[in-house]
C-alpha cells in the first residue's frame, strides 16, 4: 500500500514478478551464463545506484528476500508470478511454475500464480496446461515467443499450433495472456519479439486479454497502432518504468504515447522483479509529472486517478480482485505490520 502525502491509500499490484534461479550450478551452457549477464546489465544500467545488487545475489535470491522487497519495502499489496522456462539454457529451468509455486504455497493471499505454455510441446504441452489449470486454477499464462527449443528459435501467436492452445485457454477460462514483446535478451533473436502476431491473435480470440509485456519496445509505434484498434490488447509497463531513472525524457515520451493511443485503463504496473525493485519504481512513478510540452503535443496528462489505475486497479479488474477484500485479507499480516513499522520510523 502506497500512501500519498495527504494520506490517500493506493492499491498496488506488481503484475510482473519472478523467482528465478540463474546460479552457475543451474546454467546448462554459455547461453544460460549470457542470459543472466544480459539481465544484470539492464539491472545495473537502469537502477539507482543504491538498488544495484551484487551479481551473486542477482543470480539466485531467496523467497524471503523477495517477499520483503515486494510487500514490506515495496508498497505492493499483491504480486503476479510470471514463469519463464528456458530449459535449453538452465537444467531446472530459469523460472518455472514449480519454482514460483513455492511463494504461492507459502503466501497464498499475496501472490497470483500464472502458468505457461509452448505450442511446440504439442499434446504433452496441452496436458501440462490442463494440469496447471486443475492444480492451481490459473487465470493467466506467460508466453515467450522468442524462447529457443532445440533447433527452433521461436514461434508466433499466429501459428496454427498456438491457436490450438489459445482455444484451450478459452475453454479452460484462462483469460489473461501475457506475452513478452520487448528488448532483445542474449542470445534470443530480435525478430522473434516482433509484435505483429499480437494483432492477428487478438482479433481472433476476442474472449482473451493480451497483455503485451514491455509494450513491444523498441517497437512502441507498432504496438500502439495494434493496441488502439484491439480493445483486448493491454500494455505491461515492466522495462518501460525503469527509464524514469537514467532517461526521464524518454520515459515521458513513451508514457505520453501510451496515454494518447492506449489510455490509462489499459496499462499495468510491473517491476519485472528481480530486474528491478518495486519501491523506487512506485516512488518515482508517483512523483512523476508529464512535461508541459508533451501534455500540449499529445493532449494528455498523467493524473492521480490514472496512476491509481496503472499501479493496481487495472490488474485487479483483469484478475477479478476486489481491492477492499484483498486489503482486508492482508491488513494484519506480518508484511503489513512490518511495512507500517518501517515507514512509521523512516
Task: Summarize the structure in words.
The protein has 346 residues and is of the alpha/beta class. The protein has one domain: Alpha-Beta Barrel (TIM Barrel), CATH 3.20.20. It has 14 helices and eleven strands. Strands 6-7-8-9-10-11 form a six-stranded parallel sheet. A three-stranded parallel sheet has the order 3-4-5. Strand 1 and strand 2 (9-10) form a beta hairpin. The radius of gyration is 19 Å and the shape is globular. The mean pLDDT is 96.
* The CATH class: Alpha Beta
Helix tally? Answer: 14
* Total count of strands: 11
What is the averaged pLDDT score?
A: 96
Low-confidence stretches: none
Q: What structural category arises from helix and sheet content?
A: alpha/beta
Alpha carbon gap, first and last residue: 16 Å
Helix content: 40-55%
**Which architecture name does CATH use?**
Alpha-Beta Barrel
Might you state the CATH topology name?
A: TIM Barrel
N-to-C order of helices and strands: EEEHHHEHEEHEHEHEHEHEHHHHH
**Tally of structural domains:** 1
- The shape is globular
What is the strand arrangement across the widest sheet?
A: 6-7-8-9-10-11
What is the CATH superfamily label? Metal-dependent hydrolases
Q: Over all CA atoms, what is the radius of gyration?
A: 19 Å
Summarize the structure.
With 346 residues, this protein is an alpha/beta fold. It contains 14 helices and 11 strands.
Q: Helix and strand layout, with pairings?
A:
Elements: E1 2-3, E2 9-10, E3 13-17, H1 30-46, H2 55-59, H3 63-73, E4 78-81, H4 97-106, E5 111-113, E6 115-116, H5 122-136, E7 140-143, H6 160-172, E8 176-180, H7 196-204, E9 209-213, H8 220-229, E10 233-236, H9 248-261, E11 267-268, H10 278-287, H11 292-298, H12 304-318, H13 323-330, H14 334-344
Parallel strand pairs: 3-4, 4-5, 6-7, 7-8, 8-9, 9-10, 10-11
Antiparallel strand pairs: 1-2
Helix pairs in contact: 3-14, 5-6, 8-9
Amino acid at each position: 500500500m502506497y500512501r500519498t502525502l495527504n494520506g490517500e491509500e493506493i492499491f498496488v499490484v506488481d503484475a510482473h514478478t519472478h523467482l528465478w534461479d540463474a546460479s552457475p550450478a543451474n546454467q546448462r551452457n554459455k547461453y544460460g551464463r549470457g542470459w543472466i549477464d544480459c539481465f544484470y546489465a539492464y539491472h545495473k544500467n537502469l537502477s539507482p545506484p543504491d538498488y544495484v545488487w551484487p551479481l551473486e545475489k542477482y543470480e539466485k535470491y531467496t523467497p524471503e528476500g523477495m517477499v520483503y522487497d515486494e510487500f514490506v519495502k515495496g508498497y505492493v499489496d499483491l504480486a503476479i508470478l510470471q514463469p519463464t522456462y528456458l530449459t535449453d539454457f538452465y537444467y531446472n529451468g530459469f523460472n518455472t511454475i514449480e519454482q514460483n509455486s513455492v511463494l504461492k504455497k507459502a503466501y497464498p493471499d499475496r501472490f497470483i500464480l500464472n502458468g505457461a505454455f509452448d505450442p511446440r510441446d504439442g499434446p504433452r504441452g496441452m496436458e501440462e496446461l490442463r494440469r496447471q489449470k486443475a492444480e492451481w486454477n490459473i487465470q493467466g499464462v506467460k508466453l515467450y515467443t522468442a524462447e529457443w527449443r532445440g533447433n527452433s528459435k521461436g514461434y508466433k501467436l499466429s501459428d496454427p499450433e498456438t491457436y490450438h492452445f489459445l482455444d484451450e485457454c478459452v475453454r479452460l477460462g484462462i483469460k489473461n495472456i501475457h506475452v513478452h514483446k520487448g528488448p532483445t535478451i542474449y542470445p534470443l533473436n530480435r525478430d522473434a519479439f516482433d509484435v505483429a502476431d499480437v494483432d492477428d491473435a487478438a482479433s481472433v480470440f476476442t474472449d482473451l486479454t493480451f497483455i503485451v509485456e514491455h509494450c513491444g519496445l523498441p517497437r512502441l509505434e507498432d504496438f500502439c497502432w495494434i493496441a488502439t484498434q484491439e480493445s483486448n490488447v493491454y500494455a505491461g509497463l515492466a522495462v518501460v518504468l525503469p527509464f524514469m531513472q537514467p532517461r526521464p525524457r524518454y520515459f515521458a515520451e513513451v508514457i505520453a504515447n501510451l496515454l494518447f493511443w492506449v489510455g490509462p485503463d489499459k496499462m499495468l504496473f510491473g517491476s519485472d522483479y528481480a530486474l528491478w525493485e518495486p519501491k523506487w519504481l512506485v516512488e518515482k512513478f508517483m512523483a512523476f509529472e508529464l512535461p508541459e510540452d508533451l501534455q500540449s503535443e499529445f493532449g494528455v496528462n498523467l493524473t492521480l486517478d490514472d496512476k491509481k489505475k496503472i499501479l493496481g486497479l487495472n490488474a485487479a479488474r483483469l484478475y477479478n480482485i476486489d481491492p477492499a477484500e484483498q486489503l482486508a485479507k492482508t491488513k494484519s499480516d506480518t508484511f503489513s505490520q512490518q511495512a507500517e513499522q518501517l515507514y512509521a520510523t523512516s
